Amino acid sequence: MTVLDGNALAGRLDDLLGWDATGSEVRCTHCGIRGLLATASVYASAMGAVVRCRSCDAVLLTVVDAPDGRSWLGMPGLSAVELRRG
How many CB atoms lie within 10 A of CB 13? Predict the structure, then answer.
């Protein structure tokens, strides 16, 4: 499986959320570390991606893509996501 950094999700998150969240600060629920989503570890496959904390390896975020065009976005390991306005 290919391991990338969070920047690999920039286009995908923009498609799903309407903005590129990789430049946002996030906080890991498990270890409390804060950092840019771009610095997380991304395990990518044809079915989607699993994003893990670089500090404790906990699952931060998942993206699953179905062949019929539906997608699922899970954020089980994020206790906070920075949202910039304006």
Answer: 21
State if pTM tops 0.85. Answer: yes
Could you tell me if 1 and 45 are in contact, meaning their C-beta atoms sit under 8 angstroms apart? yes
In order along its 86 residues, the chain shows pLDDT tens digits of 778 999 999 999 999 999 899 999 999 999 999 999 999 999 998 889 999 999 999 999 999 999 999 999 999 999 999 988 76
Q: Let me know: does 49 contact 62? Beta carbons within 8 Å.
A: yes
- The number of beta carbons lying within 10 Å of the beta carbon of residue 9 is 24
Write the CB contacts of 67 (distance below 8 Å, at least 6 apart in sequence): none
DSSP one-letter code for 85: -
DSSP assignment letter at 16: H
Instruction: Tell me 17's DSSP state.
Output: H
